[in-house]
Amino acid sequence: MSSNRYTEVRNGSSPAVFSVIPVIDYDLFYEEVTSMLTDERYHCLSYSCYRTGEGLKFICCIADDGSGSVRILSHIKKDDGTPLRSLTASIYAMHIFEREIHENHGVLFGNHPWLKPVRYPHDRADRLSVMDNYPFYEMDSEELHEVGVGPIHAGVIEPGHFRFICNGERVLHLEIQLGYQHRGIEKLFTDAGDSLRRSLLAEDIAGDSAVAHGLAHAQLIESLAGFKPPASLQAERCIALELERIAVHIGDTAALCGDVAYQLGQVACEALRTMVINTTQFWCGNRFGKGLIRPGGSNFPLTEQISVEIIRVLDEVDRRYGIVTDCVYTLPSVLGRFEDIGTVTRKQATAIGAVGMAARTCGVPRDIRSTHPFQYYSQMEIKPVMQETGDVLARGMLRALEVKESVKIIRRLIDSWKNCAGETGRPQYDLKLRPDCLAVSVTEGWRGEVCHVAVTDNLGKLAMYKIKDPSMHNWMALALAVRNQEISDFPVCNKSFNLSYCGNDL
Fold it and tell me: N- or C-end of the chain: fewer Cβ atoms within 10 A?
Protein backbone atom coordinates (compact mmCIF):
# COMPACT_ATOMS: atom_id res chain seq x y z
CA MET A 1 0.00 0.00 0.00
CA SER A 2 1.25 3.51 -0.76
CA SER A 3 0.27 7.09 -0.06
CA ASN A 4 1.84 10.14 -1.61
CA ARG A 5 4.19 10.34 1.39
CA TYR A 6 5.02 6.74 2.34
CA THR A 7 4.81 3.09 1.33
CA GLU A 8 3.49 0.32 3.58
CA VAL A 9 4.88 -3.22 3.82
CA ARG A 10 4.41 -6.13 6.21
CA ASN A 11 7.14 -7.53 8.42
CA GLY A 12 9.25 -10.05 6.51
CA SER A 13 6.89 -10.14 3.53
CA SER A 14 7.38 -8.98 -0.05
CA PRO A 15 9.86 -6.11 -0.29
CA ALA A 16 9.02 -2.63 -1.45
CA VAL A 17 10.10 -1.79 -4.99
CA PHE A 18 12.33 1.23 -4.61
CA SER A 19 10.66 3.18 -7.39
CA VAL A 20 7.30 3.17 -5.55
CA ILE A 21 8.70 4.59 -2.30
CA PRO A 22 7.95 8.33 -2.45
CA VAL A 23 10.94 10.62 -1.99
CA ILE A 24 9.52 13.71 -0.34
CA ASP A 25 10.72 17.14 0.68
CA TYR A 26 12.27 17.20 4.16
CA ASP A 27 9.64 19.54 5.55
CA LEU A 28 6.93 17.06 4.54
CA PHE A 29 9.02 14.21 5.90
CA TYR A 30 9.42 16.04 9.21
CA GLU A 31 5.71 16.77 9.40
CA GLU A 32 4.73 13.18 8.60
CA VAL A 33 7.17 11.53 11.03
CA THR A 34 6.42 13.84 13.96
CA SER A 35 2.70 13.46 13.35
CA MET A 36 2.96 9.67 13.50
CA LEU A 37 5.30 9.44 16.46
CA THR A 38 3.24 11.68 18.70
CA ASP A 39 0.73 8.79 18.66
CA GLU A 40 1.84 5.89 20.87
CA ARG A 41 0.47 3.49 18.27
CA TYR A 42 3.57 4.20 16.13
CA HIS A 43 7.27 3.83 16.87
CA CYS A 44 10.42 4.06 14.79
CA LEU A 45 12.10 0.80 13.84
CA SER A 46 14.96 2.27 11.83
CA TYR A 47 16.18 5.61 10.49
CA SER A 48 19.40 5.80 8.50
CA CYS A 49 20.90 6.98 5.24
CA TYR A 50 23.40 5.89 2.62
CA ARG A 51 25.21 7.61 -0.22
CA THR A 52 23.80 7.63 -3.76
CA GLY A 53 24.57 9.62 -6.88
CA GLU A 54 21.91 12.13 -5.84
CA GLY A 55 23.29 12.61 -2.32
CA LEU A 56 22.39 11.00 1.00
CA LYS A 57 19.22 8.95 0.74
CA PHE A 58 17.36 8.65 4.04
CA ILE A 59 15.12 5.68 4.86
CA CYS A 60 12.77 5.77 7.86
CA CYS A 61 10.76 2.69 8.87
CA ILE A 62 7.91 3.30 11.30
CA ALA A 63 5.92 0.46 12.86
CA ASP A 64 2.16 0.81 13.08
CA ASP A 65 1.37 -1.32 16.13
CA GLY A 66 -2.34 -1.04 15.41
CA SER A 67 -2.48 -2.37 11.85
CA GLY A 68 0.71 -4.45 11.84
CA SER A 69 2.16 -2.60 8.87
CA VAL A 70 5.51 -0.83 8.50
CA ARG A 71 5.52 2.60 6.88
CA ILE A 72 8.57 3.51 4.80
CA LEU A 73 9.40 7.17 4.25
CA SER A 74 12.31 8.67 2.35
CA HIS A 75 14.01 11.95 1.62
CA ILE A 76 17.29 12.99 -0.02
CA LYS A 77 19.84 15.48 1.23
CA LYS A 78 22.66 16.88 -0.89
CA ASP A 79 26.16 17.00 0.59
CA ASP A 80 26.11 20.77 0.96
CA GLY A 81 26.69 21.05 4.72
CA THR A 82 23.32 22.62 5.47
CA PRO A 83 21.74 21.38 8.71
CA LEU A 84 18.44 19.56 9.00
CA ARG A 85 15.79 20.42 11.52
CA SER A 86 16.13 17.81 14.26
CA LEU A 87 13.28 15.38 14.85
CA THR A 88 14.65 14.80 18.35
CA ALA A 89 13.60 18.26 19.49
CA SER A 90 9.98 17.10 19.07
CA ILE A 91 10.31 13.29 19.39
CA TYR A 92 13.06 12.41 21.85
CA ALA A 93 13.08 8.72 20.80
CA MET A 94 14.74 9.80 17.53
CA HIS A 95 17.86 11.06 19.33
CA ILE A 96 19.89 7.87 18.85
CA PHE A 97 19.13 7.61 15.13
CA GLU A 98 20.09 11.22 14.40
CA ARG A 99 23.23 10.92 16.52
CA GLU A 100 24.30 7.87 14.54
CA ILE A 101 23.60 9.60 11.21
CA HIS A 102 25.62 12.61 12.35
CA GLU A 103 28.51 10.45 13.48
CA ASN A 104 28.58 8.30 10.34
CA HIS A 105 27.90 10.90 7.66
CA GLY A 106 28.53 14.29 9.23
CA VAL A 107 24.92 15.45 8.81
CA LEU A 108 24.17 18.34 11.13
CA PHE A 109 20.89 18.54 13.03
CA GLY A 110 20.66 22.16 14.01
CA ASN A 111 18.60 21.98 17.19
CA HIS A 112 19.47 18.47 18.36
CA PRO A 113 19.80 18.62 22.18
CA TRP A 114 22.38 15.83 22.56
CA LEU A 115 24.38 15.37 19.33
CA LYS A 116 27.09 13.11 20.77
CA PRO A 117 28.99 10.08 19.40
CA VAL A 118 27.30 6.69 19.52
CA ARG A 119 29.99 4.12 18.69
CA TYR A 120 33.10 5.69 17.09
CA PRO A 121 33.06 3.80 13.75
CA HIS A 122 36.42 3.53 12.02
CA ASP A 123 35.05 5.46 9.03
CA ARG A 124 33.23 8.16 11.04
CA ALA A 125 32.81 11.57 9.47
CA ASP A 126 34.85 13.39 12.14
CA ARG A 127 38.10 11.56 12.81
CA LEU A 128 38.91 14.09 15.55
CA SER A 129 36.00 12.70 17.57
CA VAL A 130 37.68 10.15 19.84
CA MET A 131 36.82 8.52 23.14
CA ASP A 132 39.27 10.68 25.07
CA ASN A 133 37.42 13.90 24.16
CA TYR A 134 33.83 12.66 24.60
CA PRO A 135 31.80 15.66 25.84
CA PHE A 136 30.42 14.27 29.10
CA TYR A 137 27.66 16.25 30.75
CA GLU A 138 28.98 18.20 33.75
CA MET A 139 27.51 19.90 36.81
CA ASP A 140 29.68 22.54 38.40
CA SER A 141 29.29 22.35 42.18
CA GLU A 142 31.54 21.83 45.19
CA GLU A 143 28.91 19.52 46.68
CA LEU A 144 28.97 17.06 43.77
CA HIS A 145 31.50 14.49 42.65
CA GLU A 146 31.93 12.23 39.63
CA VAL A 147 32.46 8.48 39.64
CA GLY A 148 33.79 6.70 36.59
CA VAL A 149 33.19 2.97 36.11
CA GLY A 150 34.77 0.96 33.29
CA PRO A 151 35.38 0.47 30.44
CA ILE A 152 37.17 -2.52 31.98
CA HIS A 153 34.92 -4.08 34.61
CA ALA A 154 35.60 -6.33 37.57
CA GLY A 155 34.24 -9.48 35.96
CA VAL A 156 33.63 -11.20 32.65
CA ILE A 157 31.67 -8.37 31.10
CA GLU A 158 31.87 -6.36 27.89
CA PRO A 159 33.54 -2.92 27.85
CA GLY A 160 31.59 0.28 28.43
CA HIS A 161 32.17 3.44 30.45
CA PHE A 162 29.67 4.80 32.98
CA ARG A 163 30.09 8.35 34.32
CA PHE A 164 28.03 9.15 37.42
CA ILE A 165 27.43 12.58 38.93
CA CYS A 166 26.57 12.09 42.60
CA ASN A 167 25.57 14.07 45.63
CA GLY A 168 27.02 11.86 48.34
CA GLU A 169 25.70 8.39 47.51
CA ARG A 170 22.74 9.67 45.48
CA VAL A 171 23.03 9.55 41.67
CA LEU A 172 21.90 12.74 39.96
CA HIS A 173 22.94 11.79 36.45
CA LEU A 174 24.45 8.84 34.58
CA GLU A 175 25.96 9.08 31.12
CA ILE A 176 26.89 5.91 29.28
CA GLN A 177 29.73 5.93 26.74
CA LEU A 178 29.90 2.92 24.44
CA GLY A 179 31.65 2.12 21.16
CA TYR A 180 34.53 0.03 22.45
CA GLN A 181 33.42 -2.98 20.38
CA HIS A 182 32.67 -1.35 17.04
CA ARG A 183 33.38 -3.94 14.32
CA GLY A 184 31.99 -2.29 11.21
CA ILE A 185 29.61 -5.20 10.87
CA GLU A 186 27.06 -3.47 8.62
CA LYS A 187 29.72 -2.85 5.97
CA LEU A 188 30.81 -6.47 6.27
CA PHE A 189 27.28 -7.47 5.24
CA THR A 190 27.41 -5.43 2.02
CA ASP A 191 30.98 -6.52 1.29
CA ALA A 192 30.37 -10.23 1.95
CA GLY A 193 30.44 -12.22 -1.25
CA ASP A 194 28.29 -15.12 -0.16
CA SER A 195 25.16 -15.81 1.85
CA LEU A 196 26.80 -18.24 4.28
CA ARG A 197 29.23 -15.58 5.46
CA ARG A 198 26.39 -13.13 6.03
CA SER A 199 24.53 -15.77 8.08
CA LEU A 200 27.61 -16.25 10.26
CA LEU A 201 27.90 -12.48 10.71
CA ALA A 202 24.23 -12.19 11.71
CA GLU A 203 24.46 -14.66 14.57
CA ASP A 204 27.61 -12.91 15.87
CA ILE A 205 26.04 -9.44 16.14
CA ALA A 206 25.11 -10.14 19.77
CA GLY A 207 26.06 -13.59 21.02
CA ASP A 208 23.19 -13.96 23.48
CA SER A 209 20.73 -13.18 20.66
CA ALA A 210 22.20 -15.40 17.94
CA VAL A 211 18.79 -16.84 17.06
CA ALA A 212 16.99 -13.46 17.09
CA HIS A 213 19.53 -11.78 14.81
CA GLY A 214 20.07 -14.89 12.71
CA LEU A 215 16.34 -15.13 12.09
CA ALA A 216 16.00 -11.41 11.31
CA HIS A 217 18.68 -11.84 8.64
CA ALA A 218 17.30 -15.08 7.17
CA GLN A 219 13.82 -13.59 7.00
CA LEU A 220 15.19 -10.49 5.27
CA ILE A 221 17.04 -12.48 2.62
CA GLU A 222 14.02 -14.68 2.00
CA SER A 223 11.85 -11.59 1.63
CA LEU A 224 14.21 -10.10 -0.97
CA ALA A 225 14.34 -13.45 -2.79
CA GLY A 226 10.58 -14.05 -2.76
CA PHE A 227 11.02 -17.30 -0.82
CA LYS A 228 8.28 -18.33 1.61
CA PRO A 229 9.54 -20.79 4.22
CA PRO A 230 7.38 -23.88 4.74
CA ALA A 231 5.27 -24.07 7.90
CA SER A 232 7.53 -26.69 9.47
CA LEU A 233 10.58 -24.42 9.16
CA GLN A 234 8.66 -21.43 10.49
CA ALA A 235 7.60 -23.41 13.58
CA GLU A 236 11.15 -24.69 14.18
CA ARG A 237 12.55 -21.16 14.06
CA CYS A 238 10.01 -19.92 16.61
CA ILE A 239 10.79 -22.83 18.94
CA ALA A 240 14.49 -21.90 18.77
CA LEU A 241 13.67 -18.26 19.50
CA GLU A 242 11.61 -19.19 22.57
CA LEU A 243 14.36 -21.51 23.84
CA GLU A 244 16.78 -18.56 23.58
CA ARG A 245 14.33 -16.38 25.52
CA ILE A 246 13.91 -18.99 28.29
CA ALA A 247 17.65 -19.59 28.66
CA VAL A 248 18.59 -15.91 28.96
CA HIS A 249 15.71 -15.05 31.30
CA ILE A 250 16.70 -17.84 33.68
CA GLY A 251 20.36 -16.82 33.46
CA ASP A 252 19.43 -13.21 34.21
CA THR A 253 17.41 -14.35 37.22
CA ALA A 254 20.60 -16.02 38.46
CA ALA A 255 22.55 -12.79 37.93
CA LEU A 256 19.95 -10.72 39.80
CA CYS A 257 20.08 -13.14 42.72
CA GLY A 258 23.86 -12.97 42.73
CA ASP A 259 23.85 -9.19 42.86
CA VAL A 260 21.80 -9.20 46.08
CA ALA A 261 23.78 -12.11 47.62
CA TYR A 262 20.99 -14.68 47.34
CA GLN A 263 23.25 -17.52 46.33
CA LEU A 264 20.66 -20.28 46.51
CA GLY A 265 18.60 -18.57 43.80
CA GLN A 266 21.76 -17.87 41.79
CA VAL A 267 23.12 -21.42 41.65
CA ALA A 268 19.69 -23.00 41.16
CA CYS A 269 18.96 -20.77 38.16
CA GLU A 270 22.44 -21.27 36.72
CA ALA A 271 21.83 -25.02 36.74
CA LEU A 272 18.45 -24.61 35.04
CA ARG A 273 19.88 -22.32 32.37
CA THR A 274 22.50 -24.96 31.63
CA MET A 275 19.75 -27.53 31.09
CA VAL A 276 18.08 -25.28 28.52
CA ILE A 277 21.19 -24.33 26.54
CA ASN A 278 22.36 -27.96 26.58
CA THR A 279 19.03 -28.83 24.96
CA THR A 280 19.75 -26.32 22.19
CA GLN A 281 23.17 -27.96 21.84
CA PHE A 282 21.48 -31.38 21.59
CA TRP A 283 19.45 -29.96 18.71
CA CYS A 284 22.12 -28.19 16.65
CA GLY A 285 25.51 -28.76 18.30
CA ASN A 286 25.80 -25.24 19.75
CA ARG A 287 24.47 -24.05 23.09
CA PHE A 288 23.61 -20.58 21.72
CA GLY A 289 21.84 -21.83 18.61
CA LYS A 290 24.58 -20.81 16.19
CA GLY A 291 24.26 -22.69 12.92
CA LEU A 292 20.57 -23.39 13.46
CA ILE A 293 19.04 -20.49 11.48
CA ARG A 294 19.86 -20.27 7.78
CA PRO A 295 18.06 -18.79 4.74
CA GLY A 296 15.84 -21.20 2.88
CA GLY A 297 16.12 -24.17 5.20
CA SER A 298 18.05 -25.75 8.04
CA ASN A 299 21.00 -28.07 8.55
CA PHE A 300 19.30 -29.24 11.74
CA PRO A 301 15.60 -29.84 11.07
CA LEU A 302 13.56 -30.71 14.12
CA THR A 303 12.95 -34.42 14.66
CA GLU A 304 10.59 -36.40 16.86
CA GLN A 305 13.52 -37.34 19.11
CA ILE A 306 14.59 -33.72 19.55
CA SER A 307 11.04 -32.50 20.16
CA VAL A 308 10.54 -35.15 22.86
CA GLU A 309 13.78 -34.06 24.54
CA ILE A 310 12.77 -30.38 24.41
CA ILE A 311 9.44 -31.12 26.09
CA ARG A 312 11.08 -33.39 28.69
CA VAL A 313 13.61 -30.73 29.68
CA LEU A 314 11.10 -27.88 29.67
CA ASP A 315 8.70 -29.81 31.91
CA GLU A 316 11.48 -30.17 34.46
CA VAL A 317 12.80 -26.63 34.06
CA ASP A 318 9.32 -25.11 34.29
CA ARG A 319 8.57 -26.95 37.51
CA ARG A 320 11.89 -26.21 39.20
CA TYR A 321 12.13 -22.60 38.00
CA GLY A 322 8.65 -21.97 39.39
CA ILE A 323 9.79 -23.22 42.80
CA VAL A 324 12.90 -21.03 42.71
CA THR A 325 11.09 -17.87 41.63
CA ASP A 326 8.42 -18.41 44.29
CA CYS A 327 11.26 -18.25 46.81
CA VAL A 328 13.01 -15.32 45.15
CA TYR A 329 9.96 -13.09 44.89
CA THR A 330 8.64 -13.77 48.39
CA LEU A 331 11.91 -13.36 50.26
CA PRO A 332 11.90 -10.03 52.15
CA SER A 333 15.67 -9.53 51.82
CA VAL A 334 15.40 -9.84 48.02
CA LEU A 335 12.25 -7.75 47.71
CA GLY A 336 13.91 -5.02 49.75
CA ARG A 337 16.59 -4.72 47.06
CA PHE A 338 14.23 -5.03 44.05
CA GLU A 339 11.03 -3.20 44.93
CA ASP A 340 10.91 0.53 44.05
CA ILE A 341 14.54 0.37 42.88
CA GLY A 342 15.51 1.67 39.44
CA THR A 343 12.04 2.77 38.39
CA VAL A 344 11.34 3.86 34.82
CA THR A 345 7.88 5.36 34.32
CA ARG A 346 5.55 4.65 31.44
CA LYS A 347 5.94 8.25 30.27
CA GLN A 348 9.72 7.92 30.23
CA ALA A 349 9.63 4.57 28.43
CA THR A 350 7.37 6.00 25.73
CA ALA A 351 9.47 9.15 25.36
CA ILE A 352 12.75 7.30 24.81
CA GLY A 353 11.19 4.71 22.49
CA ALA A 354 11.84 1.77 24.81
CA VAL A 355 11.16 -1.65 23.30
CA GLY A 356 10.75 -5.22 24.46
CA MET A 357 11.15 -5.98 28.15
CA ALA A 358 12.07 -2.42 29.06
CA ALA A 359 8.75 -1.23 27.58
CA ARG A 360 6.55 -4.07 28.82
CA THR A 361 7.66 -3.61 32.44
CA CYS A 362 6.36 -0.04 32.26
CA GLY A 363 2.94 -0.94 30.87
CA VAL A 364 3.80 -0.36 27.20
CA PRO A 365 2.58 -3.45 25.26
CA ARG A 366 5.37 -3.55 22.70
CA ASP A 367 5.96 -7.09 21.40
CA ILE A 368 6.60 -7.75 17.70
CA ARG A 369 5.28 -11.31 18.01
CA SER A 370 1.89 -9.76 18.74
CA THR A 371 1.85 -6.51 16.75
CA HIS A 372 3.86 -7.53 13.65
CA PRO A 373 3.79 -11.34 13.77
CA PHE A 374 6.45 -13.23 11.81
CA GLN A 375 7.14 -16.85 10.94
CA TYR A 376 4.70 -19.21 12.69
CA TYR A 377 3.62 -16.53 15.18
CA SER A 378 1.32 -15.27 12.43
CA GLN A 379 -0.69 -18.48 12.96
CA MET A 380 -0.94 -17.96 16.73
CA GLU A 381 -2.28 -15.45 19.22
CA ILE A 382 0.51 -14.05 21.37
CA LYS A 383 -0.47 -11.94 24.35
CA PRO A 384 2.41 -9.82 25.67
CA VAL A 385 3.37 -10.43 29.30
CA MET A 386 3.11 -7.10 31.12
CA GLN A 387 4.18 -5.40 34.35
CA GLU A 388 3.35 -1.85 35.38
CA THR A 389 5.77 -0.64 38.06
CA GLY A 390 8.91 -0.30 35.90
CA ASP A 391 11.33 -1.20 38.72
CA VAL A 392 13.88 -3.97 39.21
CA LEU A 393 11.16 -6.14 40.69
CA ALA A 394 9.03 -5.72 37.55
CA ARG A 395 11.96 -6.59 35.31
CA GLY A 396 12.65 -9.69 37.40
CA MET A 397 9.01 -10.76 37.56
CA LEU A 398 8.58 -10.28 33.83
CA ARG A 399 11.36 -12.79 33.22
CA ALA A 400 9.68 -15.35 35.48
CA LEU A 401 6.31 -14.87 33.79
CA GLU A 402 7.75 -14.91 30.29
CA VAL A 403 9.56 -18.19 30.92
CA LYS A 404 6.24 -19.82 31.83
CA GLU A 405 4.57 -18.28 28.79
CA SER A 406 7.39 -19.35 26.46
CA VAL A 407 7.15 -22.92 27.70
CA LYS A 408 3.44 -22.87 26.77
CA ILE A 409 4.23 -21.36 23.37
CA ILE A 410 6.83 -24.05 22.63
CA ARG A 411 4.34 -26.78 23.50
CA ARG A 412 1.82 -25.23 21.10
CA LEU A 413 4.49 -24.87 18.41
CA ILE A 414 5.58 -28.49 18.71
CA ASP A 415 1.95 -29.64 18.47
CA SER A 416 1.57 -27.52 15.33
CA TRP A 417 4.91 -28.76 13.94
CA LYS A 418 3.70 -32.35 14.24
CA ASN A 419 0.81 -31.48 11.93
CA CYS A 420 3.06 -29.83 9.34
CA ALA A 421 4.15 -31.61 6.18
CA GLY A 422 7.78 -31.69 7.34
CA GLU A 423 9.04 -29.77 4.31
CA THR A 424 12.09 -28.21 5.97
CA GLY A 425 14.85 -28.46 3.39
CA ARG A 426 18.52 -27.64 3.35
CA PRO A 427 19.73 -24.02 3.51
CA GLN A 428 19.78 -22.12 0.24
CA TYR A 429 22.82 -19.91 -0.08
CA ASP A 430 22.20 -19.10 -3.75
CA LEU A 431 18.90 -17.25 -3.42
CA LYS A 432 18.69 -14.48 -6.03
CA LEU A 433 17.73 -11.13 -4.52
CA ARG A 434 15.31 -8.87 -6.32
CA PRO A 435 16.95 -5.72 -7.73
CA ASP A 436 16.08 -2.19 -6.61
CA CYS A 437 14.10 -3.28 -3.56
CA LEU A 438 13.94 -2.53 0.14
CA ALA A 439 12.98 -5.14 2.74
CA VAL A 440 12.28 -4.84 6.47
CA SER A 441 12.63 -7.77 8.87
CA VAL A 442 11.83 -7.56 12.59
CA THR A 443 11.95 -10.29 15.22
CA GLU A 444 11.19 -10.19 18.94
CA GLY A 445 14.37 -11.24 20.70
CA TRP A 446 14.40 -11.72 24.44
CA ARG A 447 15.50 -8.07 24.93
CA GLY A 448 13.03 -6.73 22.41
CA GLU A 449 12.74 -5.98 18.72
CA VAL A 450 15.64 -6.79 16.41
CA CYS A 451 15.36 -4.95 13.10
CA HIS A 452 17.30 -5.58 9.87
CA VAL A 453 16.73 -3.40 6.80
CA ALA A 454 18.37 -3.92 3.40
CA VAL A 455 18.39 -2.21 0.02
CA THR A 456 19.46 -3.91 -3.22
CA ASP A 457 20.97 -2.21 -6.26
CA ASN A 458 19.94 -2.72 -9.88
CA LEU A 459 21.89 -6.00 -10.00
CA GLY A 460 20.28 -7.44 -6.87
CA LYS A 461 23.36 -6.93 -4.69
CA LEU A 462 23.13 -5.45 -1.21
CA ALA A 463 23.70 -1.70 -1.42
CA MET A 464 22.78 -0.94 2.20
CA TYR A 465 22.34 -3.12 5.27
CA LYS A 466 21.09 -1.59 8.53
CA ILE A 467 20.90 -3.34 11.90
CA LYS A 468 19.19 -2.27 15.10
CA ASP A 469 19.50 -4.20 18.34
CA PRO A 470 16.94 -3.33 21.05
CA SER A 471 19.78 -2.15 23.28
CA MET A 472 20.15 0.90 21.05
CA HIS A 473 16.86 2.19 22.46
CA ASN A 474 17.10 0.83 25.97
CA TRP A 475 20.49 2.04 27.25
CA MET A 476 18.80 5.37 27.95
CA ALA A 477 16.30 3.53 30.15
CA LEU A 478 19.17 2.36 32.37
CA ALA A 479 20.45 5.94 32.64
CA LEU A 480 17.01 7.08 33.77
CA ALA A 481 16.54 4.15 36.14
CA VAL A 482 19.46 5.09 38.39
CA ARG A 483 18.52 8.74 38.85
CA ASN A 484 17.96 9.50 42.54
CA GLN A 485 19.09 5.98 43.47
CA GLU A 486 22.09 5.22 45.61
CA ILE A 487 25.12 4.42 43.50
CA SER A 488 25.24 0.99 45.16
CA ASP A 489 21.94 0.23 43.37
CA PHE A 490 23.57 0.53 39.97
CA PRO A 491 24.75 -3.11 39.62
CA VAL A 492 21.31 -4.58 40.24
CA CYS A 493 19.70 -1.97 37.95
CA ASN A 494 22.22 -2.82 35.24
CA LYS A 495 21.61 -6.55 35.58
CA SER A 496 17.84 -6.06 35.52
CA PHE A 497 18.13 -4.70 31.96
CA ASN A 498 21.14 -6.77 30.82
CA LEU A 499 21.65 -4.68 27.71
CA SER A 500 24.11 -5.53 24.98
CA TYR A 501 27.31 -3.55 24.52
CA CYS A 502 28.19 -5.22 21.23
CA GLY A 503 24.57 -5.00 20.05
CA ASN A 504 24.88 -1.22 20.37
CA ASP A 505 28.41 -0.95 19.02
CA LEU A 506 27.97 -3.08 15.83
Answer: N
